[in-house]
Design a protein that fits this description.
This protein is mostly helical. Helix content is 46%, strand content 0%. Helix 2 crosses helix 3. The longest helix has 16 residues. It is flat and about 85 Å long.
């Protein structure tokens, strides 16, 4: 006996919205870069932050709690006046 064909899901409204938003990414980044080069320092700083966060993610705070078992990185540098 042959299995019935599986139904394909119709695209959801959120996936349509996501696709539409992603189609404008290039223009949005270009516009942020234009604002970044503008005369208003406040807007330029906001545009810089927006671009950096999209490129590298949001920075984490040193005060944010770590999850149990998550490794901690500690850097110790020893400098001596002796040469």
């Amino acid at each position: 006996m042959k299995k019935p064909a599986a139904r394909k899901k119709a695209p959801s409204a959120s996936s349509d919205a996501t696709a539409l938003a992603r189609s404008h990414v290039g223009r949005a980044i270009t516009r942020l870069a234009e604002i970044m080069e503008g005369d208003d320092d406040r807007l330029a700083a906001a545009a810089c932050n927006a671009i950096l966060e999209r490129a590298f993610g949001r920075p984490t705070s040193a005060n944010e709690p770590r999850r149990r078992g998550e490794p901690m990185e500690i850097t110790v540098r020893w400098e001596s006046d002796d040469k």
